[in-house]
Design brief:
The strands form 3 sheets. Strands 6, 7, 8, 9, 10 and 11 form a 6-stranded mixed β-sheet that branches. Strands 1-4-5 form a 3-stranded antiparallel β-sheet. A two-stranded antiparallel ribbon has the order 2-3. The protein contains 7 helices and 11 strands. With 271 residues, it is of the alpha+beta class. The protein is globular, with a radius of gyration of 25 Å. Helix content is 32%, strand content 19%. The chain has 2 domains: 32 residues; 214 residues, no CATH class. This is Extensin. Pfam families: Extensin-like_C. InterPro entries: Extensin-like_C.
Length: 271
Amino acid sequence: MATPDPSPNRKPFPILHVVWLLLLAAAFGAGWALWSGRVRIPEAWNPWAPLRIDATPNLLTRFKLDRAAGDRAACQVALAQADMRLTPVDDRVTGEHCGFTNAVRIQRTSVAVGSDFTLSCRTALSLAMWERHVLQQAAQEHLGTRVARIEHLGSYACRNLYGEQGRRRSQHATADALDIAGFVLDDGRRVRVLKDWRSALAGTTPTSAAPASSVATDEATKDAPDLDEARFLRAVHEGACDYFDVVLGPDYNRAHADHFHFDRGAYRACR
């Protein structure tokens, strides 16, 4: 006669629970080993290693960029690697919800920029990453040369979002945005967003959030002998989405028919 189970209501400990506990312990141990430096991994794949502007981008690049951008000192250290001529700017309040902190005045990036402009450190860092890993590669691939100058429309401005009647400020109001109208190449060619974007490449039409002048519309739709400039502009626009939070262009609305808007902010959009 079989001996009855003294605890008939007790269930065996599920093996799955044991597996999960072991996995959690292993993950905790691995994380502690990496954090403490007991285990060495390549800097490129170490999430706690500082951002390097010249490092080949990988799955951790955006994490490192955002981590550096969120810390005043870390951002300054990372930006010091950039091929930029700049001057730190004192923190400043210029109006209601306007002003900037941890900003720099940029006289030149890796290319000429025309007039100086002010950007927050985090936005300047994104600009440096975009120039290093997107801009020049796109120029070489699609145009066979390099970019010599960026033609911008400005950065800091104490204003609301376009068409915003309330108090919602633009990222320009905190020096977290830059508008780019075009590029001048090493061989002297000039590529402009207004003339060379060609919405027809993507089969899209800008929305009518802002009026477009007849002159601008006529110039933007002129025929040209090739589409290399359009492909270049699309490459630098799409590539910017890896380093900025909001990237807007002519396909977004008519207010952006003649420029790209790049910013660091609270939400993400690539249009």
